[in-house]
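Hi all, long-time lurker, first post. I run a small reading group and we've been trying to get comfortable going from sequence to structure in the token notation. Rather than ask abstract questions, I figured I'd post a concrete chain and ask someone more experienced to write out its structure so we can walk through it together at our next meeting. Sequence below, copied exactly:
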Amino acid sequence: MAGTYSQIYIQYVFAVKGRQNLLQKPWRDEVYKYIAGIIKGKNQKSIIVHGVSDHIPVFVGLKPAMNISDLVRDIKNNSSNFINDNKWVKGKFAWQEGYGVFSYSQSQIENVYQYIANQEEHHSKKTFKDEYIEFLKKFNIEYNEKYLFDWLSD
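-- Answer (accepted) --
Happy to help. Here is the structure in token form:
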């Protein structure tokens, strides 16, 4: 019986609803670990989960049987419940609708890893909005700014 072999590397980017700065440092790492656990529980490879207070990039080695949108849906739903169950924010925590997803080759893994690991430093120089639009342009993704994330006045 022939096997299926693959090498698919995906970066997801999703934001806190209203782009509020709700992912606070005292418990943010717990959320990253929880998200990595969701990915592993879906039999996918979590390469790195790390972000800032208003958005998270997630880098995953994806098997072809996993639907890209199903994985991000499960990550967002389960991590929202985790944050709310721990009562880390006042009111109800939620992620914004939508997400960005970008693919990479094997040779880019280390660069993407380092980029995600250094999110705080990176965002001290560039806004999330500017960065996200750069990604869309770099990957030749047509978009309507009206349907992008709710932006704060970065």
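A couple of things your group might point at:
The radius of gyration is 15 Å.
The beta strands are 8-15, 45-49, 55-62, 100-104.
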